[in-house]
DNA sequence: AATTTCATATCGTGA
DNA sequence: TCACGATGTGAAATT
């Protein structure tokens, strides 16, 4: 049998089942009334209440209440679970080092405990990520703009690797920053750093110490012409302002085609 | 009884228990072999495998494997759960709108199903957050530097509210940016925006179009003197460079005192 | 091990 | 509702 289960066990029965489950490498689900204490990167305390404790064979521990996607407390994978009965009550402690963290769950009542041996099916096929967006642009560069020609992905720069580097119809270098969803001002800052780094690399001669007011127009200076293009489904108002300030363009594009 | 539990139920029995649990507003734990499909902000498919499905009365749904802190698939709170038997197999669908998202879990085997009525204890007391760091500085300003005097928290600026605004021993305005943990260059950029906004507000007269090389020294220009201080446990090398570029200071401080 | 960046991030707060 | 920033963010890729 792949699943073991006990209903309203005594604290000692729960301990035995739990130790067996640890031994077998089971995925454990434990309903009960408990308090929770955490100490590590921060510290927290949670008073008595009914909760679901999930213990994984890889060391992860999750304490869930009836609300929220996030566990109210947890321990990351790589932790070590131990169970004991102290003063007649089940206690589960999960610890890890680097950083040193401890999660302690003290039960006053154990309502239900189940363990299942898990096999297979851990590979998730996910679509619609930033990588999909990059693929889409490389296959159809005209979606960025007519005449755009990608030259490289992850091209190195002084500010780190750019998402896509290419040239436009006039042969002007273009830095393309990809975001799979609506973006705020931070993405514009990221694009600006790439553009500035590329301008310096392509031979900045004067105008030192500024932060990417990217016009490169017709005045006396000979700043290398480098364009910045932000590809994202949409941008916030603040991000649009900053794009305009820098002289960058925005191309509205989804990571996957609309149906 | 606060907990119901069935072991190796038929798909129809599982459906009945599940519908009862939804009705009661139970927190549900469901072990079984299943496939999972998600479509919404992205899209994903997960082949057959043994998993734990957690269904919360607030609409959250979590699909956990035996590894990782994160669910392999999920649905946020506010979704609606529905269960049915199709072709003799239990199927759980969780949907939400805005954005439109659907999670579908198709079971080939149901091993164990439990539901618990959850009461009380949802208030977590967390220590060591950024707010703790702010409190600590307001109570002991000399931790920033001798003579520092906080004037306001969340003081508005053209770049948004600053964490802490004050003056140093010389009466020079100081913008303090707080981070509860080690920070990278982005935090320096955030601080630079506040400093620049405050300089403009306090009467910038010349040197337009640059981005905060904050010296304000003794040369001819009369840029308003505004200092920037980053309070964080530590900074990355790159962040330290940028701090030096801008003429900002770093104060090493933890959100809670070391023991 | 340290750093950087993405995520179906989630979550709270404020406008 | 949308925008913005914090999170014990987690997780992967890269150095």
Short recap of the structure:
Two copies of one chain form a homodimer. By secondary structure, the first copy, chain A, is α+β, with helices and mostly antiparallel strands. Chain A is built from four helices and 14 strands.
Could you walk me through the main structural features you see in this protein, from its secondary elements to its overall organization?
Two copies of one chain form a homodimer. Chain A is α+β, with helices and mostly antiparallel strands and 259 residues long. Chain A has two domains: 3-116, Protein Yojf, Chain: A (Distorted Sandwich), CATH 2.70.180; 130-252, Trna Endonuclease, Chain: A, domain 1 (3-Layer(aba) Sandwich). The first copy, chain A, is 20% helix and 38% strand. Chain A is built from four helices and 14 strands. Chain A has helices at residues 11-24, 130-139, 185-201, 237-246, and strands at residues 3-7, 27-39, 43-55, 61-64, 73-75, 80-86, 89-96, 101-116, 124-127, 149-153, 164-167, 173-178, 227-232, 249-252. In chain A, strands 1, 2, 3, 4, 5, 6, 7 and 8 form an eight-stranded antiparallel beta sheet that branches. A five-stranded mixed beta sheet of chain A has the order 10-11-12-13-14. In chain A, strand 13 (227-232), helix 4 (237-246) and strand 14 (249-252) form a beta-alpha-beta unit. The longest helix of chain A is centred in the C-terminal third of the chain and has 17 residues, at 185-201. Chain A is elongated. The interface between A and B is large, with 66 and 66 residues. The structure holds a DNA duplex (15 and 15 nucleotides). Chains A, B: Residues 129-204 form the Endonuclease NucS C-terminal domain. Chains A, B: Residues 28-115 form the Endonuclease NucS N-terminal PH-like domain. Chains A, B: One of its GO terms (cellular component) is cytoplasm. Chains A, B: Belongs to the NucS endonuclease family. Chains A, B: It comes from Halorubrum rutilum.
């Amino acid at each position: 049998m792949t699943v073991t289960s006990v209903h309203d066990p005594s604290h000692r029965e729960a301990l035995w089942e739990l130790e067996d489950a640890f031994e077998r490498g089971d995925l454990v689900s434990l309903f009960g009334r408990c308090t929770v204490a955490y100490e590590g990167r921060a510290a927290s305390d949670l008073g008595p209440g009914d909760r679901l404790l999930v213990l994984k064979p890889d060391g992860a521990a999750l304490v869930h209440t009836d609300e929220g996607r996030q566990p109210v407390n947890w321990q990351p994978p790589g932790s070590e679970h131990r169970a004991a009965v102290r003063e007649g009550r089940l206690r589960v402690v999960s610890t890890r080092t680097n950083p040193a963290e401890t999660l302690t769950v003290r039960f006053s009542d154990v309502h239900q405990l189940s363990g299942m041996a898990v096999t297979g099916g851990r590979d998730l096929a996910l679509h619609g990520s930033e990588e999909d967006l990059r693929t889409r642009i490389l296959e159809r560069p005209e979606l960025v703009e007519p005449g755009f020609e990608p030259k490289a992905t992850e091209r190195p720069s002084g500010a780190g690797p750019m998402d896509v580097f290419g040239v436009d119809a006039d042969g002007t270098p273009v830095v393309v920053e990809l975001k799979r969803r609506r973006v705020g001002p931070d993405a514009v800052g990221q694009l600006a750093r790439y553009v500035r780094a590329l301008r310096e690399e392509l031979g900045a001669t004067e105008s030192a110490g500024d932060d990417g007011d990217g016009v490169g127009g017709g005045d006396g200076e000979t700043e290398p012409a480098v364009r910045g293009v932000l590809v994202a489904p949409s941008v916030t108002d603040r991000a649009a302002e900053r794009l305009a300030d820098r002289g960058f363009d925005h191309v509205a594009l989804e990571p996957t085609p609309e149906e």
